[in-house]
Amino acid sequence: MADTIAESDNNPKSSKVFNMDLEKQEGVVVVTPEEVEVFDYAKRAQWLRAAVLGANDGLLSTASLMMGVGAVKQDVKTMILTGVAGLVAGACSMAIGEFVSVYSQYDIEFAQMKREGNTQDKNKLPNPYTAATASAVAFSVGALVPLLAAAFIKDYKVRLTVVVAVVSLALLVFGGVGAVLGKAPFVKSSLRVLIGGWLAMAVTFGLTKLAGHVGV
């Protein structure tokens, strides 16, 4: 006979399950606890959030910039330069923003631990350097997708079509990967990312085209 007992060790990010094997030996019940670690997906939140958001932002913001400029400038060189500028500026912005945000969270949680006299658990606090690096790298990876898609296509209409198609596929992939790693609904998460990406590219392209027509 086996019973399962769940126990929390005052850490909301971790949980333990003990399998209690009850064996009868000469009329005496012997309890042998077997500790089983249960993986908490919330532990992935720090790097997963930064990586997924960075990749999606790099992909979508760079593609939208390229589409917007492509609405008024049809040469491939202008579009690629716009994408490169978007990649560099966006990666720096994401890294700095993530660093400041996570460091603020670190300070708050560390101050709370000091008040509770529990400063030995500093390794459980969020790492701003890890979050900033993950965000910048992920942004760059995402931004490379539309850049590589447009780099070798000279025809304007074909280039726009290929960029939209490749970005759409990448949005589905990034949305699906985030859903799988975070144990979220796969189809719903992927479609939400894809539809949001389409809207961003369409609005950027349309408004830039309009601005070009009115001579702004």
TrEMBL record:
Membrane topology term: Multi-pass membrane protein
Protein name in UniProt: Vacuolar iron transporter
Family stated for the protein in its record: Belongs to the CCC1 family.
Cited function: Vacuolar Fe(2+) uptake transporter.
InterPro entries, A to Z: Ccc1_fam
Segments traversing the membrane: 76-96, 129-153, 160-181, 193-212
Pfam families, sorted: VIT1
Gene: LOC107468698
NAD as UniProt keyword: no
Keyword terms of this UniProt record: Ion transport, Iron, Iron transport, Membrane, Transmembrane, Transmembrane helix, Transport, Vacuole
Domain of life: Eukaryota
